[in-house]
Amino acid sequence: MNNILQFLFYILIFPGFAFCVVAGLLIAGIDRKLVARMQKRIGPPILQPTYDFLKLLGKETIIPRHAARKVYLAAPVVGLLSLVTVSLFIPIFNFSIFDKPVADLIVIIYLLTIPGVALIIGGSASGSPYAGVGISREMVAILSYELPLVIVLLTIGRKVGMALDGNITFSLKAIVDYQAQYGPMIAQWSMIPAAIALLLVIPCKVGSLPFDIAEAEIEICEGPLVEYSGPPLGIFKLNHAIKMFIMTSLFVTLFLSGAGTNFVALNVLIQFALAVVVTFISISVLKAITARLRVEQTFKFYWTYPTALALLSLVLVWLGL
Length: 321
Description:
mainly alpha
């Protein structure tokens, strides 16, 4: 019985649903405030994304006449469930739900793809021509950032695996234990190109400027989300905020982790603070100074610079450097 209650606590409270919602909405609010300050504006309050989410929960859900009702309503929920599941796999310094190393990096790669696929399926179920344009763009975005992301994770797995048994490891717990012994991964010069590549991948994975090609509010009226309203739209917006926290927190675990302290609450605060720093570097700065890229520019950019940086780190690690 105790194990069941503990498992439910992990899923519903921490590090699962409730923690992801609070942290994601706070990260989204801080990001908006930072962008406003860099553009010499006051900006909305940090809790504005929370207010917007709660407001959408109270709005009416309008379903298009030609929409596939069940798929249309299920898509945002599927995306949310996948993100909450990802949060269960990400260690917070020495705190991890899983006591033994598991191949969670492979699971995370698949789970992080589901929100994008859910957006595509939900948009296609709405029957809107604007959604059709956004769907094609989301597919291009996925094809753009997945290659450098996989190479970065492969590089880290190889680096840690060489210190363990000479193979490749896909365990986040093993990666954290490695950093607790040898120091943060970003302090090793052969891993710096991979860290830069992941910083460049994060904004496209999240879907923020300058890589918000799928939702482009001014150009195609939010693309796949054009027909969404009420709670389903609120859940999609929540998914965006949670994904922002998940990706920045994953970067912290992969490159800035270690033994941490003996207090879980303090480790959580440190993880969140580092995630805010990563958000500022990876998302806010680009959003404040860069115009949105076109579809072909996004594809060319990711298959050139982040991929080249990730491959450079992989080659250096494979050579034992």
